[in-house]
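seq/struct pair 1
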Amino acid sequence: MPGREITCCFTGHRPVRLPWSTNEKDPRCISLKEQIAASLEGIYASGYRHFISGMAIGCDTYFAEAVLALRERHPDVTLEAAVPCDDQADRWTKRQQAVYADILSRCDTVTHVSHLYTPDCMMRRNEYMIEHSSLLLACFSGRGSGTMKTILCAERSGLRTIILDI
């Protein structure tokens, strides 16, 4: 397991909290993906090599895809999936499940925080990511959500935090 000092984790909203919902062709979504990619280049340049995604639909997926693209340019980049429970994707659309499976198959590490769904498994996944990182990259709209709770938890834990506004 890479050290915390070179590990960056991510948090961001699911489609229900995004102004474009699931329309990834929306110019705002395209712009956010470009911001994530540019941020990752800067984070890589500052010495980070290991990245952890919570693997939810929406922003977590954008982040994981951007890390995989970064790895194509920098082979020393590694991607870890922090999966909150084994059935995380069971209720998603077929397309979302296919994207999820593709990303998981390309991860260097897959960590299952819990095998069974529990009411707190998503927050435990977020705590796992924070405990193993020294930097949090977040896509945040400013509204209360799991993303906000993760940002507050990271800040209490002393993680440097970079927030991309949605």
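seq/struct pair 2
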Amino acid sequence: MKTRRYIAIAALAAFLLDQLAKVYVLFGLNLLERYEIKVLPPFVTFRLAWNEGINFGLFSGAEARWVLIAIALVLVAAIYIWVMREKPGRLGAISGGIMIGGALGNVLDRFVYGAVADFLNVSCCGISNPFSFNIADIAVFAGAAGLILFTGNKKAG
């Protein structure tokens, strides 16, 4: 029962953080019209990018929207089932929940907007990064890293 609770709380936290940040940046800071806001120049910029595909816009297009939503929902279910079977402990369950919450944040974007709202742009050291991402992307990445680090380490015996 604890595993389910850890997954649910982590998923809800990641999902809400992502969606609240998007609402604040898109509508509160009016990034929809401003397109770009320099937050900590030259390192952090809010730069709006609508991602219709997967990473770096691959597989984009209106026809791919529903396919990508379906794939994401299947992956969310698979992660949930796997974590429930694996019972990886608190950190593994939290990692799975963070990953699920991030994926669902991007699913909601695709459903509501037709594309994922990316707005975080980080550049460094004289190199200008042309790509933007969002908190859901961070959650998916961090959750996946956590699942790698905190699962499958059971010793035989």
